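Handout, section B. The chain below has 342 residues.
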Amino acid sequence: MEAAEFKSDQYVRFCPGCGDHAIAAALQKAMAEIGIPPHQVAVISGIGCSSRMPHYLSPYGFNTIHGRGAAIATGVKTAHPEITVWQMTGDGDCLAIGGNHFIHSLRRNVDLNICLFNNRIYGLTKGQYSPTSPKGFVSKSSPFGTVERPFIPAELCFGARGTFFARTLDVDMPTTVRCMVEANNHKGASLIECLVNCVIFNNGTHNYIADRAERAARTIVLKHGEKMIFGKDNEKGLALDYSTVIPHLIVVPADDERVLVHDATTADPTLHRMLALMGQPDTVEAKAEMEANGSELPIALGVIRNVAADTYDQAVHRQISDIQATAKVHCFDDLTKTLETW
């Protein structure tokens, strides 16, 4: 299939230069590679710039109300498990008003492919700070700097017992497409944190790793079964240092025998969490320090966690089938015959 088959005839109203353009193009490429026809796919969203995505894709779409994309997507997948369901959401739509639905869709392991667009700002409603804005961030709704600590999406995913977490960057098309394909192949709730740039209200928020010249030194693209190496010449690797009470990640030469091999499928989330939290400053000062002086540990991209588990929609339908197989009541008339009548 071709990516063009997944494009709608609607004019794309993302701002010129917005990172959402790249994610839309990557999603169309991924859908074509997956090969499921558009009429067997549904794209559900809430409210926000990223949540306009159903308008720009040819599969079935539902642009719901603010924060309720996960609830509607859960209903679609449970009622029609044969349909592939994608949920488009932003850091505000998903982690603020929609936070409760979000964590429970992960806990239940509903078979959804969730693309969480993280630009650390409310873009559609014109520049308020969001749940992922760093503490001290100055915005229209925090003119003296927000006093709140931000959410880190990976922590929420692991805390909700999520089975799949990936992170990608809007300017890295190959990694984005690969993460989307693997998310689709995973049975359960698949969360992809898409780091996107808002050119109007938070321009350059991901420049530290978006800069092509420095990206290889500042990021590591994790691949299951492969060594955790990175750098401009793949000269560095990640290892665990056991010299402290709590082991921690360190950078070692790529040829060091301690370099870790990535296992995305291990059920224990300890190392996955350590990898996902690398390079995640939670204050304006810490972010500025990292951008000015660099960070020893890279920011992890790619599929970090991919663990097999029973899905909510499968469990619901299996339970219904089991009960129907032994039930004496098969229709409404059967039910009324079991009751007292007059």
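Note. The first helix runs from residue 20 to 34. Compare this with the example in section A.
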